[in-house]
Design goal:
This is Pectinesterase. The protein is built from five helices and 29 strands. By secondary structure, the chain is an alpha/beta fold.
């Protein structure tokens, strides 16, 4: 027997509500993260909840905070700090070099978004570290929603006047969430330690993610700027793993590679260089060879670990890839797809 029209209408609306609830629950798909729950996007409130501190310092370029300078706020943190402290860098362009020394750990530097809060400098140097706009040398550091820029003009190719680092990361247990890194060359000096980059934007032309750290780049956008001074090509990565005993490597998961001009995914900077791109969109800006051993005189037969797994896009075709590069199986890729690659469960506030 059919329901009366009024009851039918109520039943239909109730059904819609139930379906909507199920749909929203499915889309949110809350995943357990170290005792808490992370949304599909790690945001500032979640990080604050995980870090769980009431200690905070406000930086405001207009003078409406505790400090007008980011460095002044960092300098105010006690040496040997052992409890998390939040440095809230409000919107604005802070034209200064910023350094977090080794004796000031447990800093959470929170911006208002990478399009609103920027730390900006302009310097080239023979010394990569000296040129860096931002340096972190203390463990247990987290940044959220900040752009780091080195606006030094492009120097002379293959010379020391071409080092213009946006950020130097030289400490263990460092994480960046929703940050951006800009330079024309040597953008991100990921020197050493275990690092996590989530939903970050990284822009450059030559070797613009380099070092020998142990890092995961999750859902990051890599944007290539053509370097017209050379016939071909810059490299996105230059990893300097020098021994099979080192657990280091750069792993890119669920990101995008796009841009202007031609580029390699990576080059061998060390004899055991290790870089993996997994589940990544690769545009045609990546050349068919994919990888290069430019400036590396050693054998490519056994030690280099330049690999891809389940990538897609017009630049992901593996037909003409460098002979030493690998297309990984599910089993081979599994150790690099886990947060355990950087022991993240032991120290990260949140991950996806």
């Amino acid at each position: 027997m059919p329901l009366p029209s009024s009851q039918s209408s109520k039943f239909f609306r109730a059904t819609q509500v139930a379906i909507a609830f199920i749909f929203v629950s499915s889309v949110c798909n809350l995943d357990a993260v170290d005792g808490f729950f992370a949304k599909a996007v790690i945001d500032s409130p979640l990080l604050r909840q995980k870090i769980a501190t009431n200690r905070s310092i406000k930086v405001d370029i207009n003078g409406n905070g505790d400090f007008k300078s980011v460095q002044a706020a960092i300098d105010s943190v006690p040496d040997g700090n052992s409890d998390w402290i939040i440095i809230h860098v409000r919107k604005g362009v802070y034209r200064e070099k910023v350094s977090i020394p080794h004796n000031k750990p447990y800093i959470f530097m929170r911006g208002n978004g990478k399009g609103k809060t920027a730390i900006d400098w302009s310097q080239s140097s023979e010394d990569n570290i000296e040129s860096a706009t931002f340096k972190v040398e203390a463990p247990h550091f987290v940044a959220f929603g900040i752009s780091f820029k080195n606006e030094a003009p492009t120097g002379i190719a293959y010379t020391s006047q071409n080092q213009s680092v946006a950020a130097y990361v030289g400490a263990d247990m460092v994480a960046f969430y929703h940050c951006a890194f800009y330079s024309s060359h040597n953008t991100l000096f990921d020197l050493k330690g275990r690092h996590y980059y989530d939903s970050c934007y990284i822009q450059g032309s030559i070797d613009f993610i380099f070092g020998h750290a142990q890092s995961i780049f999750h859902s990051c956008e890599i944007f290539v700027i053509a370097d017209r001074r050379m016939e071909i090509h810059g490299s996105i990565t230059a990893h300097k793993r020098e021994s099979a005993k080192e657990n280091t490597g750069f792993v890119f998961i669920k990101g995008q590679v796009f841009g202007i001009g031609d580029v390699y995914l990576g080059r061998a900077k060390g004899a055991y260089s290790r870089v993996i791109f997994a589940n990544t969109y690769i545009s045609k800006t990546v050349v068919p060879q994919g990888w290069t051993n430019w400036s590396y005189a050693g054998s490519t037969d056994r030690n280099l670990h330049h690999a891809e797994y389940n990538c897609h896009g017009p630049g992901s075709n593996s037909t003409n890839r460098a002979p030493w590069s690998k297309q990984l199986s599910d089993k081979e890729a599994a150790p690099f797809l886990s947060i355990d690659f950087i022991n993240g469960k032991d120290w990260l506030p949140a991950w996806l």
